[in-house]
Amino acid sequence: MTSGDSAPPRLVADVTAGAGGAMTVDVGVITGDLTVATTDLGDGTASVQVQYTGAEEWYGLEGSPVPLPPTGIRALHRAVLDAVRAGGGAHVGG
């Protein structure tokens, strides 16, 4: 396998959304037990998606895709998890 064939880095974690949940572009606010996936798109940006834990459907988090910070995808993923835990219609970016 060449390096061009490898999948981009993807981090996945479960989190319970705080009051006000997470704002998605697909279905609006979702709340409760969620799974968050942050994927490096390989172009300096990352996609952030959320789903109800155990569900099949994924929803784009408002603001995604977002530029990767200089601190990398792990720092972005941690920040997204913190934002979702805080709730308030969590989103990424600006």
Can you give a write-up of this model?
The structure is a single chain. With 94 residues, the chain is an alpha+beta fold. It is built from one helix and seven strands; from the N terminus they run βββββββα. Strands 1, 4, 5, 6 and 7 form a five-stranded antiparallel beta sheet that branches. A hairpin with a 3-residue loop joins strand 2 (22-24) and strand 3. It starts with 9 loop residues before the first strand and ends in an 8-residue tail after the last helix. 24% of the residues are buried. The model has no long low-confidence stretch (mean pLDDT 92).
Please outline what is shown here.
By secondary structure, this protein is of the alpha+beta class.
